[in-house]
From TrEMBL:
SUPFAM superfamilies assigned to the protein according to its UniProt record, in alphabetical order: alpha/beta-Hydrolases
Taxonomy, superkingdom: Eukaryota
Gene Ontology BP annotations: proteolysis
Protein name: Carboxypeptidase
First and last residue of the signal peptide: 1-23
An example Gene Ontology molecular-function term: serine-type carboxypeptidase activity
Segments forming a coiled coil: none
Family per record: Belongs to the peptidase S10 family.
InterPro entries: AB_hydrolase_fold (IPR029058), Peptidase_S10 (IPR001563)
Organism: Stephania yunnanensis
Keyword Signal: yes
Gene3D superfamilies the UniProt entry points to: 3.40.50.12670
Keywords: Signal
Length: 116
């Protein structure tokens, strides 16, 4: 993976955890917008392994979109959290918990789509 100056924070975090990284962004974040975070992830030059898709949460007997996610080689996942600002758990505690639980157990975020 090529790490450049702009993406150095993400690279250092990724290297520190050796094989996995979750770059998460609240879609209402005005301090570090989702598009800026996504651009930094793209600068890491890692091949995409699973396309953009919505990830879901189960609520009141149905499904709701928790956000959107894309996966890359070497254990890198980028995910947005719908309805969250800069500090995701402050705005969407349940969605943040689900996202981190799946990440820490090494699973892809839940989706209604088949795995490509």
């Amino acid at each position: 993976m090529a790490c450049n100056y702009v993406a150095s924070f993400f690279c250092l975090f990724y290297i520190a955890f050796i094989s996995t990284m979750l770059a998460a962004s609240g879609d209402l974040d005005s301090k570090v917008p989702t598009a800026a975070t996504f651009r930094e992830v793209q600068k890491m030059n890692v091949k995409q392994t699973r396309a953009w898709r919505p990830w879901i949460v189960t609520q009141e007997g149905g499904y709701q979109t928790g956000g959107y996610t894309v996966e890359y080689e070497q254990g890198l996942t980028f995910a947005t959290v719908r309805g969250a600002g800069h500090e995701v758990p402050e705005y969407q505690l349940e969605r943040a918990f689900i996202m981190f639980t799946y990440f820490l157990t090494g699973k892809s975020l839940p989706s209604l789509q088949r795995h490509e």
